[in-house]
Amino acid sequence: MISGLKHKLDYDDLAHIPPDRLRYELSEGDLHVTPAPSPYHQWISKHLQRQLEAYFEVRGLGHVFDAPIDVILTHEDVFEPDLVVVTDRAQITKRAIEGPPTLVVEILSPSTTLYDRTTKSHRYAALGIGHYWIVDGEQQALECYRLRDGAYETVTRLSGSMRFEHPDFPGLAIDTTVLWAEP
Asked: Where do the H-state alpha helices sit in 1-67?
């Protein structure tokens, strides 16, 4: 048996991986690698980011970041969500977002659907991320969850093209019509 090999990775290990267009994340020290997103995925991300910025940044309520950006929740839990909303300026450091942001958005890809819906959802809830949204471009659906008693409960599930005002963010209106329109 070889001794001295690490069984769990941490942020220091992740920081030494050279950039290669893949996405590297740690969940409880286990490494997860996914390919770069598709153009349609990026289209959805860009248009949702603009709507979130119009609410959080224009009103001075927070900052919106898009991938690639590390979100360090613990030394062995480092994620790279598609979109991140931070309302506590102290969590924005020179190296990453440190601590649970207000909102994390994952846009499903064929290679990430199961991981986003299970592993990430459970870790995000366990580590205190207050809001988790899942966007499914294939199904043209937006699912909004809020943290309650350590687990996510559904706020809403939108399907197709519509406008939605989130009850936890007064005045935040999301228009899904622009999300599904392909470039």
From this structure: 11-15, 39-56
- Report the side by side order of strands in the sheet with 71-74: 30-34, 23-27, 77-79, 71-74, 97-98
Give the CA count within 13 Å in the CB-facing half-sphere of 83.
28
Tens digits of residue pLDDT in 48-101: 999 999 999 999 999 999 999 999 999 999 999 999 999 999 999 999 999 999
Beta-strand runs (E) in 20-150: 23-27, 30-34, 63-66, 71-74, 77-79, 83-86, 97-98, 103-107, 131-136, 141-148
Tokens of 17: 């991986």
DSSP H helices in the chain: 11-15, 39-56, 113-115, 121-126, 177-180
What is the token pair recorded at 4?
A: 């001295």
User: Considering the entire predicted model, what is its pTM?
Assistant: 0.91
For residue range 121-173, what is the model confidence (pLDDT) as tens digits?
Answer: 999 999 999 999 999 999 999 999 999 999 999 999 999 999 999 999 999 99
For tokens 């559904």, name the residue.
154
Q: With beta carbons less than 8 A apart as the criterion, state whether 134 and 108 touch.
A: yes
How many C-beta neighbours within 10 Å does residue 36 have?
A: 13
For residue 87, which phi and psi values (nearest 5 degrees)? -105, -10
Token pair in block for residue 40: 């349609």
